[in-house]
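User: Quick sanity check before I run a bigger batch. Here is a single chain. Can you write out its predicted 3D structure?
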Amino acid sequence: MPFVRIDALRADEKRLEALGRAVHDALVDAIGIPKDDLFQVLTSHDGTQRVFRYDGHYLGVHRDDDLVFVAITMRSGRTAAQKQALYRRIAELAEEYAGTEPRNVFVTITENEPLDWSFGNGVAQYAETG
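Assistant: Done. Predicted structure follows.
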């Protein structure tokens, strides 16, 4: 059920696909989502017509134009340890699959509740039925 947005600067289709696969595999490995639970938006920014801004040294992490933003929206309930494992696994697989150095993998998680999801037909499929 996670919804993932990945933004990268001047990434070709092959790199975007590798990054998407890395995040999905990390979600399966680290928090146990089903393999067929795949909802992603992968976007490359060309650096001239799209704005892609970042601080190259925030919190002592030295980023460059290979930076990748990963935004994950998912239901609440994961522990701090599960989230830390997810961050590590995303960074590992982004490097393995796409050649992105771990220092250039920026991940955010936004949590919500079952009623906040509709997978189609105007129905909140995860909402408890009374």
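The mean pLDDT is 93.

User: Great, the batch can go ahead then.
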